[in-house]
Amino acid sequence: MDAASPDASASARAGIPAGAGLGPDRILAAYRLMVLSRTTDERCLALQRQGRIGFYAPLLGQEAAQVGCALALTAEDWVFPAYRELAVALARGVPLKSIIDQLIGNSADLTKGRQMPNHFGFREFRFVTASSPIGTQITQAVGAAMAAQRRREAVVTVPFFGDGATSSNDFHAGLNFAGVFRTPTIFFCQNNQWAISLPRDKQTRSKTLAEKAEAYGFPGVVVDGTDLNAVYRAVVQARARAVQGDGPTLIEAQVYRLGPHSTSDDPKRYRTDAEVAEWKARDPLARLRADLAVAGQLDDAADQKVWEEARAEVAAAIEAGERSPPMPPESIFEDVFATLTPRLEAEREEFRALGRGTEGGP
Amino acid sequence: MDAASPDASASARAGIPAGAGLGPDRILAAYRLMVLSRTTDERCLALQRQGRIGFYAPLLGQEAAQVGCALALTAEDWVFPAYRELAVALARGVPLKSIIDQLIGNSADLTKGRQMPNHFGFREFRFVTASSPIGTQITQAVGAAMAAQRRREAVVTVPFFGDGATSSNDFHAGLNFAGVFRTPTIFFCQNNQWAISLPRDKQTRSKTLAEKAEAYGFPGVVVDGTDLNAVYRAVVQARARAVQGDGPTLIEAQVYRLGPHSTSDDPKRYRTDAEVAEWKARDPLARLRADLAVAGQLDDAADQKVWEEARAEVAAAIEAGERSPPMPPESIFEDVFATLTPRLEAEREEFRALGRGTEGGP
Amino acid sequence: MTELTLVQAVNRGLAEAMRADPNVVLLGEDIGLNGGVFRATEGLYKEFGEQRVIDTPLSETGIVGTAIGMALNGLTPIAEIQFMDFIYPAFDQIVSELAKFRYRSGGQFPCHVVIRTPYGGGIKGGLYHSQSTEAYFCHTAGLKVVVPSTPADAKGLLLTAVHDEDPVVFLEPKRIYRAVTGEVPDGDHRVPFGKARLVREGTDVSLFAYGAMVPPTVEAAEALAKDGIQAEVVDPRTLVPLDEAAILASVEKTGRAVVVHEAARFCGFGAEIAALLAEKAFYSLKSPIARVTGYDTPFPYALENLYLPNADTIAHAARAAVQAA
Amino acid sequence: MTELTLVQAVNRGLAEAMRADPNVVLLGEDIGLNGGVFRATEGLYKEFGEQRVIDTPLSETGIVGTAIGMALNGLTPIAEIQFMDFIYPAFDQIVSELAKFRYRSGGQFPCHVVIRTPYGGGIKGGLYHSQSTEAYFCHTAGLKVVVPSTPADAKGLLLTAVHDEDPVVFLEPKRIYRAVTGEVPDGDHRVPFGKARLVREGTDVSLFAYGAMVPPTVEAAEALAKDGIQAEVVDPRTLVPLDEAAILASVEKTGRAVVVHEAARFCGFGAEIAALLAEKAFYSLKSPIARVTGYDTPFPYALENLYLPNADTIAHAARAAVQAA
Ligand SMILES: Cc1ncc(C[n+]2csc(CCOP(=O)(O)OP(=O)(O)O)c2C)c(N)n1
Ligand SMILES: Cc1ncc(C[n+]2csc(CCOP(=O)(O)OP(=O)(O)O)c2C)c(N)n1
Ligand SMILES: [Mg+2]
Ligand SMILES: [Mg+2]
Q1: Among chain B residues, CA nearest to A248
Q2: 0.90 cut: is pTM over it?
Q3: Do D57 and A132 lie within an 8 Å CB cutoff?
C-alpha cells in the first residue's frame, strides 16, 4: 500500500477535514485540485494519442461537482466511483502518482494492471475500485451504508454515477433499498447531459433526474454542478441528514461533459459545436478563478503558479510511472481467490513450463 | 388450438366489446365472471389439497380489479399477465376448460405441461403465456407496444403485476422505455398489499405505487380495486390516452390478497386475522352483489342461479380435464427450437432406446 | 451429533455462524417472520432480530448488490435467493462484481459473500422452480461453488463457506431438503472445500454425482452390485475448487467413468469432468465416458420424472460402460 | 463479391436484412447517429430512420425485454449489446424468457430475437471489454449461438440468423473486426447453421477453434506443417447447433484433438467438445485431448497477451498431442 500513502504532493492538501463552510483556504485548495485534475486530463488525452496509455476518459467540465462533493465528506465516508472520478480521488488525498500508475498499469499500480485506465481504487482512502458496468456501484454503496448503520457509525456512503446510470437496474434497486432501510447514502449523480451519444432527454422523460428520488420516498435536489460552493453546500446538507438518521438524498449535479466520452469517442458525430460552446462559457474552472480574482484571493501571477505546479506534478508522476517496471507475468494468477486453488497452481505451472512472460516466450 | 376456441360457456360472455360505460348487461356479465373466478379458486384450492393438481395461486379478492380492467380492453389488445390473472383470462373469453387443462397439465393443455399450474397462455386471446420470474412481462409488454406503434395499430398492451414487482429490474426499465418512446401501454399494478410475506410498506417507501410513474414522465393513478366500475373507468381512460398517442399510464388498483400467496404459503405466519377481516368486509364480490341487488338487477334467486351455473361449469371442466390423457412422453423434446436439432434428435433416440415413458420404463 | 434433515442442518449452520460472529447477517426475500419459503431460516428472526435477518424488497439485484457492499464494509452477509431460477436478475452483480472484486482491485477489496439458494428438480416445480445451472457459476472465475448432498455436509460446508475469504455460491438440493436425514455434528463442524467424499468404494466403474443426484446414484450402485459390478461413487461436494486428484485417482483405478447431474448436458458440469479425464486420465480409460444428465431442453413440469436421471438410467449407463470393450 | 472487413460485413448484412423486410428493426445503445461504438450500424440510421434504428436508454434489461415483446408482436428485432461484458443485466430476460418462451408456451409464442454483441480480448479492454462467455449461452437450452470468423461467414450467418425462427446469440469477434478482410458475396448470402467450416485439411491432429482464435490456430497449423505435422483446422461456426458429425469425423481421421478458445477453461466450451469426443470418438483417440484456452482467472488488462492463446501455445499443445504415445 506504500505507493498510495499520503505524501506532501499538491493533492494531499485535500485531506483537510470538512468544516462548516468552504472557507478561503479550502476554496483555494479546491481550485488547486481542479487545476491539477484539468492538467491531468489534458496530459492524459495527449498520452493516449501517443500510445503511452491505452485509454482515457476525461472529466473536463465536471471538476467543481467532483471536488465540491468530495470536500464535503470525511475520510471515514465511503466513495463508490464510476470511471470518471479522478478529481474525487485527488480530493480524498490519493497521490496523483498512484493514479498515474493505474493508468499505465505498471507494477506500482495498486489494482495490478487488471483493468483499463481510469478504473482505479484505493482501500486506504475508502475509494472503492471502479468497474465498467454502469450502475453496479449504487447498490453496493447502499450495502456499505447498511453495514455502517449496523455499527452505528456516523459515516455516509456515496455512489457516483452519470445521467445514463439512472436507467440501470442498480439505480432502481439501490434507491429502493436505501429508501426502505433509510440508509446514510448520498446518491451523487453527475448529469453531464450525455451518455456517450444519448442525450439526457432521450434517457428518460422525467423533468429532472433528482425527482426520481420521490419514487423511493426520499428527497432529490438539483444543484448547479459548475458551482463549487453550491455543490459543497448540498452535500454537507445531505450528509447531515444522513448521519442524523434521516436517510438518503439524491443529488443531481447538472454539469456538461466538455470533452469526448473517452478517447474511443468522437462527439462530433452526435452533438453540435454550438451546444459545446454554450457550456464552455460555464466552465467551472474559469468560473471559480473569476470568483477568486474578484475576491482578491488569486491574482494572475498566483494563478500562473498554480498551473505550473500542477504541470510539474503531473509531469513528475508520469515520469515516475513510466519508469516503474511492468507487472510481473505470473501476477495474472493472483487475487482470483485469497489463495491459489490447485487448478490455478497447475495453470501457473503450465504457464511457467511454456516460458510465458519470459524473454522470447510465447 | 381447438381447446381454446371460444364456445358457449359462461366465460365466453365476456367477449362483448368494450363500450363507453359498463351498462347493466355488462355489469351482470362481469358479476358472472367474478363468481366463476371465485368458484374456480375455491375448487382449485380443494383440488390441490386432494393432490389432484400440484399447485394453485388464488386471486381471491382481486376479481373486480381483473375483470374491470379486462372488460375495458379489446380483443386486439395484448395482455401480459403474471401468474394470478385467471379472471382476466376468463374475461377475455378463454374457456374455463382450457385453463383447467393447464392446471392439470394434461394433453389438452396448450402449454403442453411445461409449467406449474397458473402459468397459462393463449395466443388466440393475446394472453401471453405467463412465467414465474417477477416483472419480466413488463418490458415485454412495452416492446409489443412498440411493434403496434410501428404498424400504427390502435391497440394497447397491458402488463399485469403486483406490488412486489415494482421493485423488479423490468419495472424500472419497462416504465422508462415506455416514457421515452411514449408507448401505448397500461401498466396495471394490483397492489394486493403483500408480496408473499413482505407488506407493501416494506417493499418501498413511496406513498403510493402509482406516483412512481412520475419518475418516468407519465401519469399514475390510484383506483379502488374492489370497485369494478372505478377500475373499468380508469382503464378506459388510460386506453383512450394511449391510442391517441399520449403515452402510457400506470394504474395502481388497491386490493387485498384475501387468500394465501399460493398453496405453498401459510399467511398466518406473517399477518393478522384482524387485517384480513378488515379487507374481507370489502370483498369486491359482495360489494358488487349488493350494488346489483339495490339496483334491482339481481335478486337472491338469480344470484343463486349464477353460483349454481358457475359450480356446474367448473365441475364439468374439471371432469373433462381429468379425463384427458396425459402429455405424451416425447413431447419433452418439442418446442425447444422450431425443429429438433441433431443433438435433440439423438437425445430423443436415447430416451426411446431406454424405453422411457413406456410401461415399466425408467 | 443430532439427527437432522438437510434443511434443518442448513438452519443449524446459520444459527451457529450467527451466534459465533455478530457480523454475520442474513438477507433475502421472506426469510424473516416467514422463516424462508423452505423454512431454512426458521427461528432466526426471533433469535437475532430484523437487523440481522433482513427481509428485502423483491430484487435479487438489490440483495446481491447490497450484500457486496456489506462485505466491503466489514460484515459477512449470507444472501438467500429464493430459488436458483430467480438468481438471474442478480447475475450481473455476481459475475461482474462479486466474482471479480478481489482481482480487479489487486487484492484491495476482497468480497466475501455467501449466496445460498435451493436448486434442482423433483418437486414438481416446472420450468422456474427446478433449474440447476451450476455450470454458469463454475465457469465464472472467482466464485467457489458448493453442493452438499448430506445433512452433515450441508452444515459443515456452510460453516466453511462462512469462514472462507472468497465469494461462495452455495447450492442446496431442495429435492432432498427433507427426504434425507442424517447425523450432524453439533457446534462448529467444518468440512473442507476441495475434498471429495468417497461415498462408496468400487473397482469396476466410477460414478460421479453431487447434490440430489447422489441418492439415486448410490441406489444404482447397489443395483449394480447385485449384478456383480462394483461401482465407486464419488461426490465432489465442491465443484470449485474441484478435487481433481480424487476424480483422477478413482478413474485410474476403475478405468471407466459415468458423470451424473440434473442440469442440461450441453456444456454442463459433466463436460468438465469428462474433459479433465480425457486429458489427465486418458491412458487409464477403458471405455467412453458417459454422461447421465437432464436433456438439452428447459425443465418440464408434467413429465419431470422422465427428464431427470434416476437409478435406472444411471445403472444403465454404468452397465454399458463396463460392458464396452 | 466485395472485399470487406468483418465489421463491414456485419454492417452489410444488417442493411440487406432491413431492406428485404420492413419488420426488421435494430435497437441498442449508441447505434443511431453514432453508428455504434464499433461502427457496425454506420449509415443505417440515415437510411432507415429512428423508427427502425432505435437508440435506447442505458438498460440491457430494457433492450432485450422490449425486443422480446417486439418479436411476440410481429417484428424481427436485432438487438445490439455494446460489449458482451454488458449482457448480464439482460441475463434474466435471455435465460428465463427468450430461451424458454417457445417451450413454456407449448409453441404458441415463439420468440425470434437476434442479439448481436462484440466479444473477446486482444483490444486492451481489460476485465470488462474482453470477455467471451459463450458457454453460459450454449448451456442454456433454447438459444442458438453463432460465432463467425470471416467476413463472408459474418454476413452469411447473420442473414441466416435473421431468417431463422429461434433466438440467436450472435457473437462478433471484435479483435478481428478490422484485422481480417475477405471476399463477401453480395445480396442475400446465407451460411447454414450447424455446418462446420473445414478451414484446413490435415491428417495428424485436429484443431478446433472459432471466432478470433481461428487466425492464430491457422498460423499454428502452418508452423506445424513446417515440422511435417499436418494439422486439420475445423471452425464449428455455430456452437449451437453444433456440427458434431464434422468434429467426430475429423478426430476419427486424425486421432488427436486440441480445442482452442479464449474463454476460461473450466466448464468452457472446450469441455463440451472434449466430452463429446471422449464419448463418441473414444476408440479413435490416440492421445489426451488438450485444451488451449484462457486461464481460470478474470481477464487481465496489462498482461492480456500472456492470458490469450496464440499460435505458439496452440502449436505447442498440438505437438505434444502428436508426440504422445
Ligand atoms: C451495463 C453497461 N452497458 C453499457 C456500457 C457502455 N457504456 C460505457 S459508458 C456509457 C455511458 C454512460 O453514461 P453516464 O452514466 O451518463 O456516464 P458518463 O459517461 O456520461 O459519465 C455506456 C453506455 C457499460 N459500461 N455498462
Ligand atoms: C425474480 C423473482 N424473485 C422471487 C420470486 C419468488 N416469488 C414468487 S411470487 C413473489 C411475490 C410477488 O409479489 P407481488 O408482485 O406483489 O405479486 P402477488 O403474488 O402479490 O400477486 C415472490 C417473491 C420470483 N417468482 N421471481
Ligand atoms: Mg452522462
Ligand atoms: Mg402483491
Answers
A1: B205
A2: yes
A3: no
